[in-house]
Amino acid sequence: xxxxxxxxxAATLTKNRTEGSVSPFSGMCxxxxxxxxxMCEIGKSAYRGHEVIYPQPFGxxxxxxxxxxxxxxSYLTILGTAVGVVGADIDxxxxxxxxxxxxxxxxxxxxxxxxxxxxxxxxxxxxxxxxGLGSTNIAKTNWEGIAIGSALAxxxxxxxxxxxxxxxxxxxxxxxxxxxxxxxxxxxTFFDWQREGYGDIVVQSNVEDTRLxxxxxxLKKCGVQTVELKWGQGAKDIGGEVKLKSLxxxxxxxxxxxVVLPNPTxxxxxxxxxxxxxxxxxxxxxxxxxxxxxxxQRVQELRDAGAKRVFLKTGAYRPADLARAIKFASLAKIDxxxxxxxxxxxxxxxxxxxxxxxxxxxxxxxxxHQYCERLAKKGEYLPDIALAGGFTFEDQIFKAxxxxxxxxxxxxxxxxxxxxxxxxxxxxxxxxxxxxxxxIERFGMxxxxxxxxxxxxxxxxxxKFNEIPTSAIGVYTYYERLAQGMRQLMAGARKFKLExxxxxxxxxxxxxxxxITGIPYIMDIDKEEVDQILDA
Length: 536
Hints:
This protein is of the alpha/beta class. Among the domains are: 44 residues, no CATH class; 71 residues, no CATH class. It is built from 22 helices and 19 strands. The strands form 6 sheets. An 8-stranded parallel barrel has the order 5-6-9-10-14-15-17-18, surrounded by 7 helices. Helix 11 packs parallel to helix 12 and helix 15 packs across helix 20.
């Protein structure tokens, strides 16, 4: 098993001098030579210090852990069957007509539509949510792609933390926001392309956002109906972070109450910045403090402010915190709880923390099922669950929904749709420049030819199709691929609606995986039925 790379990684732009001979427990070159200029992480830390904590180059990358966990979702296998049809549209009286069953039980007929919510149901064409893209540069510059793509696909996108506080055009009076151009633009971008009421845009809030009254503003002024409280994420166990290249912006955010390092109002710091001793400030968010009473109170405040749906997102904290999230969500009767596993991120998460902190996805999602089962057996309310933590393709999505069935209604993905948006955007730019790479040019020289979903989008939107940015087409097309892949896997398991997926659709490939997930080892599955068949 390969564990975390200790002292050299592309994430921090470092490498070992003796790349072929590295100490496995320290990550250092086996021979550290006096006179080396310091290409490794220790060496770079000798002259850039705390800057090397974070993945680089900041602002144009997303990051995920390199750690190879002992057990992950690949240790589960998907089980198909040659008999039965569950959830397909079968004519009454023809349940035993094999030809009729084969005609109706084709994978394009699998429905991926779902609903989330308690009293005010939210309908979705696909079971996907982007859990939270906030004030980072990478989120801002790709917002059109992910927001419009989500709207076209009928899925959920979440505006993450600190968007208003980071917007220099925001107006804050007496500690509360009264104008938020960036937030309003992000919300409008989604609503302008929403179709038939499918999907939604959610406004998330951390400590600073709550103090500024961001969610109340979004509910009352921007037409938002769904808000989300945030306890954390799978990338880190501290608050949100970004880097600032402008002294003026650093001072503005400091004035607005953010933690900014180093202090941008200190004359010595100002002089050092102007001299070029350092080129970036860090903006950090405060840690949230969770209690049952404050959580229940805040949920009620948001409902009183007009929220039709209240979500909660929690990170990869210790098991007791997962239990708190599920129990408090039950008591408050919130609409959806997103549970994020360790290892990924779209912001400026400390690199070592991202690799070495938190409960990995398979383990935290398995615990989620255990805890939900305990409450369900007592007849207690359970919110709909969304699972996040490094999902990228349909097999992982299938496994997650089956592992946590019947509680999981959807999966959260951020890095992968963001990657699809960035690729779509780049193709659009290269089209405009007439400079397509050969491996793309072979599909054509227009977006109608290159993007396989262009014909259906053009039919749906007519002339307005020309206004859809290629970044959004990239997200929509990526989602289309995931949807078709999911339909094929579900049809193979003879499950034609998401609600019929069960843990029985999976098998564990190792005893360790069985112990973690509670999914039986593959060699033990169907034993009773096997005996009945063979002994008949």
